[in-house]
Amino acid sequence: MIVRPHYLDLLKTYRDVPLVKILAGIRRCGKSTILDMLQDDLIKSGITADHIISMCYTSEDFDDGMTDKDMYNGIKEKIIGRERYYLLLDEVQEITGWEKAVNSLLENANTDIYVTGSNSKLMSSEISTYLTGRYISIPAFTLSFAEYMEFKKAGGRAPKELLTEYIRMGGFPIVALSHFDEGAAHQIVEGIYNSVITSDIIKWHNITNFDLFNRVVKYIIENVGKTFSANAIVKFLKSEGRSLSVESVYNYLEWLEKAFVIYRCQRYDLQGKSVLKTQEKFYLADASLKYCMMGFNPKSVAAMLENIVYFELRRKGYKVYIGKNGTKEIDFVAVRRDERIYVQVCRNLPEESDREVANLLEIKDHYPKYVVTLDELAAGNINGVKIVHLADFLLSENY
């Protein structure tokens, strides 16, 4: 098992704090393995194995009829006396009312609780009043480039060679751990995608017109890194002779977001200092989701570079927005406490450098500004704007 220290360190920060620790992200991004890592670390720190209760609610040991009371009683009977127990509960969203059981265990037993899940039941907007103010949400993503390199380190290959592979193959751990060719890797990711769609969207929301839903998904995937509206999707479908209401499109977008297939990136008006409600962008949980459905196309790489940078900023704890500065757009405005950075992403320089750098120079403050590129020869500094190769940007600990 290859340790992912970013998550382990976060979970250790909140160890024995009276909050439910919730790891939420797309299926197969490695949440269960993170719980295994946590269990190993607990044992190394002196916790005895009989005081760690690990449950997986996708197991065949549990049927569809399990209630929150069954969940509570099943765990409570394993707890003896008032000694402290550590509960590692995987895929809890399979149990309706899981948060009632978890809240009761938090109140009625000496427990430190960690849960994972992969759909809306783990999003803060969906967690009922039972856990209000009593949980910390930790987003779980597919592998960062640094983690991908760690998974592949036995090969002794250069970072920039591995970056090309990472861009094309994505960061699902099951792909990184093996030596699949591109076709096999994309086939595996397609299986993950179909599992998400079936289990976390079709089943939960009773979608009957799967073909129409799938066409909306493909439109979103084709337009990663572009601003668009629900109306634009409706008009596009109409041009294909299909009919769908704006409300249905909003529902589809919301359901995809709640299954962690897509992530919404809002626009921020740098002059008005406000978050805008329109013309958002959506990014895919992993770049491989695009290629598994549409094949690899070199023309799509620029958008997927944005996708990769977006998630790297999210992993590092930034809130990420698209920047609007008058009529100019900044790819990303990333904010973390009192820090801020501005990032433009482009595939090649120098032909794009004038525009990218000019947009950043129009921002009249002293926060760090970056142009991130795949251009091998472009590293440097232009009037305070740092030009950085994508590999170096992804592997930087601090900006």
Q: Gist?
A:
With 399 residues, the chain is α/β, with parallel strands linked by helices.
SSE layout and pairing:
Layout: H1 5-13, E1 20-24, H2 31-44, E2 52-56, H3 68-76, E3 85-90, H4 98-108, E4 111-117, E5 135-139, H5 145-151, H6 159-169, H7 173-176, H8 182-205, H9 210-222, H10 230-239, H11 246-258, E6 262-269, E7 274-284, H12 288-294, H13 301-315, E8 319-325, E9 328-336, E10 339-346, H14 353-361, E11 369-373, E12 380-382, E13 385-389, H15 390-395
Parallel strand pairs: 1-4, 1-5, 2-3, 3-4, 6-8, 10-11, 11-13
Antiparallel strand pairs: 6-7, 8-9, 9-10, 12-13
Helix pairs in contact: 1-2, 3-4, 8-12, 10-11
What portion of residues belong to β-strands? 15-25%
* Share of helix, binned: 40-55%
Return the average pLDDT rounded to an integer. Answer: 91
Shape estimate: globular
Number of domains: 2
N-to-C order of helices and strands? HEHEHEHEEHHHHHHHEEHHEEEHEEEH
Structural class estimated from helices and strands: alpha/beta
Number of strands: 13
Number of helices: 15
> Which parts are unreliable, with pLDDT below 50 for 5 consecutive residues or more?
none
Distance between the termini: 30 Å
Q: Biggest β-sheet: count, sense, barrel?
A: 8 strands, mixed
Any idea what the radius of gyration is? 22 Å
Read across the widest sheet, the strand sequence of neighbours is: 7-6-8-9-10-11-13-12
